[in-house]
Design brief:
The protein is α/β, with parallel strands linked by helices. It has a single domain, classed as SPOUT methyltransferase, trefoil knot domain (Alpha/beta knot, 3-Layer(aba) Sandwich), CATH 3.40.1280. Helix content is 43%, strand content 21%. It has five helices and five strands. A five-stranded parallel sheet has the order 2-1-4-3-5.
Length: 159
Amino acid sequence: MNISIICVGRVKEKFLRDAIDEYSKRISKFSSINIIEVDDEETPANASEKEMLAILEKEGNRILSKISDSSYVYTLEIEGKKMSSEKFAKSIENLCIEGKSKICFVIGGSLGLSDAVKKRSNQALSFSDMTFPHQLMRVILLEQVYRCFKIINNEPYHK
């Protein structure tokens, strides 16, 4: 299996980069993992709706250029579907059974995701009704992907 995580922006904080590196290393025992960062657009303090849509479109185009046609795409969205870790693991396992070897997760920037990216998504996921910094969301997602593999392989860690 090949997992890609496409993220808007860069992670600057060392403690977050360390956590990302640790979970990436753990996941690599089960799957290849590739984190792709695309540039974010600076959002003016009092941006109009038109300016925000233009920013979303630019970031969206960068994201879409990194998604292969054969990838199964999960977008992380507040309005996406919530599921338990066990159900998330089952959905990943089912993709493997169906022969889908490329899975792509997309984390948007501070304004979210463009409509074009949402349209490309096969499944929208929500980890919470709360809003998290997109840099921290990488760590949360990686931990859950690692947890999925531990569940799928019936290995201790999950509880």
